[in-house]
Design brief:
about 40% helix; TIM Barrel; about 15% strand; alpha/beta; binds 1,3-dihydroxyacetonephosphate; single chain; 12 helices; eight-stranded parallel beta barrel
């Protein structure tokens, strides 16, 4: 089986309810016709249910995602949302391990619990990893990302791991306008795939979708997506601009999948 090519928009904490509906409507229109890839809208919690309804007619390739979930399924956790609750409003994916949440104190151990809970609830997970600038400066990115994967993800069984999309998001590239070069990103993606191969097997590694995130936009998407191990993008800022998001989707859809 070919691996899934994907462009996911992470809106982060942006847009009022009505602004979000306008953005979703525009993003859907600009992404129409790219049914050979998976397009994901990761909205704030307040938009999920309504945007889920808007995606219904395109649900064979456009998917709804949340940006976080709790590791327990219910209970006295004021302000939290469980994976089951996300399923109940139509989410199919959840982003976990984003560096912006790790920076607020989420540990690898907590993320392992969240990933496991999300999969048990029937969600697919977009799991983010990536090194800060000072680690890149001393060339420590491989070791750093390896530890994040070993501690946060590699405890999953084969069939659970197949629900995972990995997003490599170097922290120094997020929201900075400083993208990893296609070669830098490819090098890390190939490394991540080799770790999946070691921990699981060839089939799981070949099918694992690995996204790049960090100042990915309509101008650099084409070069990034030309790389063999870059299966798509996790888009922050540019996903708030519907036409640009649509152009990134089109750039991904235009590139033929090349099997390992
Ligand atoms: P930017 O595209 O704004 O750099 O954000 C990337 C990101 O964090 C996506 O999750």
């Amino acid at each position: 089986m070919a691996r899934t090519l994907m462009v996911a928009g992470n809106w982060k904490m942006n847009k009022s309810f009505l602004e979000g509906l306008v953005l979703a409507n525009d993003a859907i229109n600009h992404a129409l016709g790219s049914a050979n890839i998976t397009v994901v809208l990761a909205t704030p919690f307040i938009h999920l249910h309504t945007v889920g309804g808007m995606l219904k007619d395109y649900s064979h390739y456009m998917k709804l995602a949340a940006q976080n979930c709790h590791h327990e399924s219910q209970g006295a956790y004021t302000g939290e949302i469980s994976a089951d609750m996300l399923r109940s409003v139509g989410a199919e994916y959840v982003i976990l391990g984003h560096s912006e949440r790790r920076a607020m104190g989420e540990t690898d151990e907590l993320l392992a619990k969240k990933a496991s809970a999300a999969i048990k609830a029937g969600l697919k997970v977009i799991f983010c990893v990536g090194e800060p600038a000072e680690v890149r400066e001393r060339n420590g990115q491989e070791r750093f990302v390896k530890l994040q994967l070993e501690r946060g993800l590699f405890n999953l069984a084969d069939d659970e791991f197949r629900q995972i999309t990995i997003a490599y998001e170097p922290i120094w590239a997020i929201g900075t306008g400083k993208t990893a070069s296609p070669d830098q990103a490819q090098e890390m993606h190939a490394y991540i795939r080799s770790l999946v191969r070691q921990c699981y097997n060839n089939l799981v590694a070949d099918e694992c979708t690995i996204l790049y995130g960090g100042s990915c936009n309509a101008l650099n998407a084409n070069d990034l997506f030309s790389k063999h191990d870059i299966d798509g993008g996790l888009i922050g800022g540019a996903s708030l601009r519907a036409e640009e998001f649509g152009n990134i989707v089109k750039a991904r859809a235009a590139k033929q999948y090349i099997r390992n």
